[in-house]
Batch of 2 targets.
Target 1
Amino acid sequence: MSQLEINTHISVRFNQELESLKNSVLAMGGVVEQQLSDTLNALKTNNAGLAEKVALNDMQVNSMEIQIDEECMRIIARRHPTASDLRLVMTIAKATTDIERIGDEIERIARLIAKSNVPESDSFKTSMQVIGEQVLEMLRGTLDSFARVDLDSAMLMYKSDQDIDALYKELLSMTITEMQQNSDDLETWLEVLWALRSFERIGDRCKNICEYVMYLTKGTDMRHIAIESIQSKLVN
Amino acid sequence: MLKLFEHSRKPIESIPLEDVAIDVKNLNLRFNGKLVLDDINMIIPKNKVTAFIGQSGCGKSTLISCFNRMNDLIHGCEVTGTVRMGGRDIYHKKENVAELRTRVGMVFQRPNPFPMSIFDNVCYGLRLQGVNERRVLDEAVESALKEAALWSEVKNRLFESALNLSGGQQQRLVIARALALKPEILLLDEPTSALDPLATLYIEELINALKTSHTVVVVTHNMQQAARVSDYTAFLHEGKVVEYSDSDTLFTMPKIKQTEAYITGRYG
């Protein structure tokens, strides 16, 4: 967030508070990124123990969300941030909610793996792995664009959600076909559907964070508008 | 669980005795029979910034003036109760008030430099105490001006008139004059109300730096300022302390409805 020049206030304490707030949300993002990486490893290696550990570790993410929210509120009440400082605090508060929800989606996937309920089908496991890796890459890129307040990278990540949506649809139709052929194991397949949905939702959450990065730098709200409008707003 | 932020709320009730700079008990103050401070009971923690907020006439300046007995100078002032510093009641009849005021410095709303040089302003109190050795005065002036974050701006014009300084610089000079006497406690009575926003921020930053070696009590009618600079805040109304707590709590979740109304601008 060097572009925002958060270290240039007369108040050294305010500088420190914003720096610490920024670092905390990046630390939270780092924990969630590791959670997703561990989940994919657990899926690949059938490691139910690792998946269980990931699911339990979501408590840490929840605790971080509460602490960051409280700090945002404290800074607003005591520092009365304005302009880019206010946008930064609001962005962090909103991004924290999305990161926490990403943690919840990862927990859901990890619980499925921990119960060893992933269907044996190799093609299916590979497909889960493929969407998982793609989502992990998007999450990494998103957090990186947030850390560097990099508009170009945020836009790139924003667009990559379309690929994830397309892959999700493909896997969804594949899963429905499997469900029709294995109707005696519907419960497992329903859980798989939820897990796939979770991967897709992580993509949506990353997209939200990309919108916040754009808002932070341009001061324009990019939510609920078409990608073409976003591109034209970024140019202007 | 991982702790993300170092600071934590320390309730005023949890301050141990050894960290108390001022202990006020059953303090009542009357001007010509009229009750102005009504049964004040509070502690001021050491090496922290404590702010008093409240409407004009609520008694905050009167209360701060009790801490170095400035009210003694007002005719018709009658004080009961105790104000202890270092275990000693400063209202005891044997208290040396002149010595008390070197331990408890005070700065007022309007910068009031004396019509003399910057150097002479800063060492005015020391000279009154009989310190005249040039080397000692030089060191004291430099140290006090550095502590007041003014040294770099005036070091090449120490013997120019203090009246040539800007308002913000004059206020920091007055703070330096108080600091030259090495007070344990610094009382600031609306120190920035006559200053522009930028000069205000410099004074606030100075207040934050001063607490490492001094206990600071600041009276302000600017709630935002209290929120920015203070560790603890007391809200006063009609001579009573309505609520007193750590500033994080007071400005995010005050317990008393009257405080909530005041700090959110719903008062009256």
Target 2
Amino acid sequence: MASLRNLAASLNPATSTDDVNRAESREIDASTKWPAIFLLGSAVVWLLIGTVFALISSFKMHSPEFLGDYEWLTFGRMRAAHLNAVVYGWSVNASFAVAFWLMARLSRSVLRHSGLLIVAAAFWNIGVTLGIGGILAGDSTSIEWLEMPLYATPLLFLAYALVGAWAVITFRFGKSQHIYVSQWYILAALFWFPWLYSVAEIMILLTPARGTVQALVNWWFAHNLIGLWFTSIGLGAIYYFLPKVLGKPIHSYYLAALGFWSLAIFYNWTGVSHLIGGPVPVWVQSAGIVASFMMIIPVFVTAINHHMTMLGNFDALKNSPTLRFIVFGAVAYTLTSLQGSLMAVRSWSEVTHFTHYTVAHAHWGMYAFFTMTMFGSIYYIMPRILLQEWPSAKLISLHFWATAFGVTLYVADLSIGGIIQGLLLNTPVLAHKFGLQEGTDPVPFLDTVKAALPYLKWRSYAGILITVGHVAFAINFVWMIVRSVEVTKTKLTLFCTPTDTEVAAR
Amino acid sequence: MNRAPLIFLSIFFALALSWTGIVLVNQISYGSLQPVYDENDGKAYPLQTPGLAARGKLVYQDLGCISCHSQQVRRLGYGSDIARGWGERQSVAHDYIREDRVLLGTMRTGPDLRNIGARQADHTWHYLHLYDPQITSAGSNMPPHRFLFETRKVIGQPSPKAIQDKLPEKYRPKAGYEIVPTERGESLVEYLLSLKDTYAYPETKNVYVEPAPEAGKEGEKK
Amino acid sequence: MSDNPIKKDPRLDRSGLSDERLQEVHSILLREKPEPKEGDTPLPLFILGFVTAVIFAGIIYFVHYRGGLETGFHKAALIYDERYDPTKAGVAGQETKVDPVAQGKLLFQTCAACHQATGIGVPGVYPPLAGSEWVTGGDERVVRIMLQGLTGPLKVEGKDYNGNMPAFGPGGGYNLSDEKIAYVISYIRQEWGNKAAEITTDKVKEIREKGDVGRVKPWSFEELEAIK
């Protein structure tokens, strides 16, 4: 039946409802053009800057003399600058762009007052620049995920207020009554972020809470920034692009609903798992551990939903760059979340807490899941707003393989290194059992450092690979914007020549 | 049916729940802990960080030392913190109540520093270690902090703070020059030396005690 | 879906419109699939079972490690050991016996920075503790070194050393109590094959209060030779 409608639509595009929608989409895309280009352009710039900071910090980890004489390039500042550049620069800019494009499309509303969004984006980027400059100059707050000095935050708040106001306007004007699952996630994220951020700023920096209450606020904020902002936007994008590219509905509405609400309820308690064994009340730690464990519900449910949607369409991975990145991201989401649940278990946390294992976990989530999903989304969005194709399929391919292989190597390498470091550092009896050390007394601390060094070196190699991918992506991105070629009919930039336009719909 | 208000309300309550449980409840239940006055010592613990050390803490923050060093000791039997001599007891909330900024940290690329002042109380050791960690801890991957020192010409009396005589041969400056810690370097070392949690608050005794063998079954019933 | 014959239909390309320009614009639109929707596959039953099981396990865990929550938030806020049970506090043997050698081993971490964990020291700088007569010999000399430190050249077991040992006693940077000094000495006297008696806290106190009570100056080799 559906195929009959498709046939009718294809024979007479101007009259079918689907094509009315398509024409409308064209209009909506055009309205998002400038804000999206501005946001994504700044995101790409921050991605490159963040990558440079990352490489410098990674080299310093195994070669401490590297650039050792410059105070502003010292490891502690480089690492904070890296984190803030990729989180607040790259990730937030990219997620703004993707979230708004999705919101506009899904609520079927032409983006109004896009000037407001560009002003907001400009404020945001000035704020981040000021903040990272501040970190390098020595004004870091040393609060993890909130290192930017207090003077950068009013700009960020202002930017976010504009964004929030704009989102409310857009959503009110929406014609569509049905609220699609991606919209739940994005709406929730837009609402949660200012709450998290303002509580953290007030209780840690403006009027510091006493003692370790600060640490609880810190991790409630930081883990929720990942869980309630980046995860929400990332999952929203997957829920949109997966069925969109495949041209079939998401497997089950009920699974989607269960996944969303269980994430909303459980995720925001998990931050305490960063403080297991620390000087915070043990009942809060237990609550955080239970919540992390509960996270296997949304993860499992969402994974089933995505997998069942993909089922029978794995061929499409050969063609579509978007799908390839998105599926990589979705798989990484499942795996990193299960790893997160495991890491919260007390006996596993005893080994891996305070080690490079945590760093591997963070990159699995923020890079393999979130960043890859954003790459996939950008590959879909840019041709639609620019009405141009990506200049080079080879560069896309290089981008995918370099980053996919790079981040896999990164995560595997640091996970193993982290476990070895953790066994030597924390559980000498176990380390002895696995033959890592003689005797069951703790080995000298320096031995734990030396044991991790080879893995830190391999991390740098993985980082170089990822950098290659980023450079390929940036070249393609800039190339696409600057060249002035008109619409190129149906020739798509895909990994192989599609015989079938519909399947290959990117 | 437009369910937007319902969705909005639910996402509000989802976060409100954890905000209450993690932030609010703890702020109320221990967010106003007071120092403990010890009549034997005539002091209120934890002690206030002295002035120069407080400035050193700012240096610790701006250099991002927290990226590699934690400041928390886990309980006996959980991790090897106490077995490593990083503290005599587990860190408790009381230890941090005088601190405007709590730097618990989440990485131990370097050792825990919560009690470094009790463990390594020697100024010179810290200066040498900061100048180049290889001097005192060969094989360490801590970056050198030579920017916390200045090499300057000796004018008149040599500075009593100069460290060049204690440095190994290859680090020594030309004759007539001396290496002295800058004000930032000095205050950082003061801060490190001030880090020691020696007072045992009543709650540090809230620890699990292995039940006697015959009471073993009792314990399981809980 | 993928085997839909329509997709391979050649009419797709020449359908509807003949105007070259219009087709061009539409080409971008035509290759887009419809906006996604949610399917209505119901929840499989095993998911409900799975969710229930996970929630059940979570509740059990939390109740087990609630950390004294039943005594109220204020009291529970000061409990940091998940195994501690406030209702049983004081029941089990609170008086734990302290093993001075084990305690000394913990404290020795500081000493190991110079004397090494193996107790063999560093040639020319830090003298060995393993097999050293200075450690296993008379009480007074070793206690004095611990209390006020040692500076300048010295000779141990026939070899020359020239280092600095800081004061560990009261008033110094380490400010160790008599008790802890006794622990450390007891430990180094019984490790690495050393066989000498433990030292008591009272003995340390006695030595500290005897003679130079207010002394802060580190000892020199010559002075110590005189003590023995």
